Amino acid sequence: MSTEPNDPKTTVRMRTAHGHACAALATRPEQEAGETWGWRGRTLSLSVIAPSGPAWLRVGCAPSGEINATFWNGSVAAQQAIPESVPRPRLRVVHDWNDEQWTYRAELYERVTARPASPTSALTIAPELPATWWRTVRAVLHDIAPVPTDRFTVRQPFLERAMPQFLGTPIDTTPPSWSTTHGDFHWANLCAPELHIFDWEGWGLAPTGYDAAVLHSYSLLIPSVAACVRRELNDVLNTPEGWFAELAVITQILHSTTHGDNLDLAKPLRRRAEHLLGRPVPPPSGPTVAPGALERITPTSPRAECGSPLPAQQGDGQAAT
Fold it and tell me: Does the 8-110 domain belong in CATH 1.10.630.10?
């Protein structure tokens, strides 16, 4: 999960928006409910009591007039298209409104009590993951991959531009194949030891093996867990499709480091890319930004390259209550 925004105006605006959503949907925050913030204050979520019982209310925002419908409607589309076999909180109600500068969407979900495997997308403490968890992960990836969609998590033009920039040349920028993915399959969006998957707004087509590659890349700070991911998802990652997917994901995360995100992952990601490519990769081509300077730059993320109004969230899924 991300922390409260550095900008007090953003904090006040989003708390006001969440209060509006509570009133509109006849819910009330649960007593002593903790706030769960998304990436740079773009979402705010709390556990609430709805007329039907305990629920989870997530409010997202985007600048008015700049909504990308693909990502804005991702959670609704996932509710309709993703198989019931995939464990996730069910979306109950959606409520939209706007003011002069911002458009808001409130999403009311059923509440699950499972805890995210990590409070942040990049793993820093090894979680306990039973064999049943890995079996469920493999089944989920299998069930998502063939879902028909015209949505895209990653687009070919981004790969053609960014892969040579961050990985050097020669580099093949054409995926062997495309499959449907969750799109943000990192540790803050996955519960353990019982798997539930949060944050579906970015699902869509990506290079085959993309979700497994995301999970592996965000495990690199804990080498033993990264090795476990490679072992448990070997049939996906240890293939030409999986190798390409890793390079695509590494490119996206390295892109985000130039804007101050995921800085701890930069070195292990480059080492992993060099292992896959069998050659050195170039040093950063642009200045990195210290985390304290984030509020002074335009928000950018791997998803922002694809036009998302809600860039990749730092685990704004449900928190355990």
Answer: no
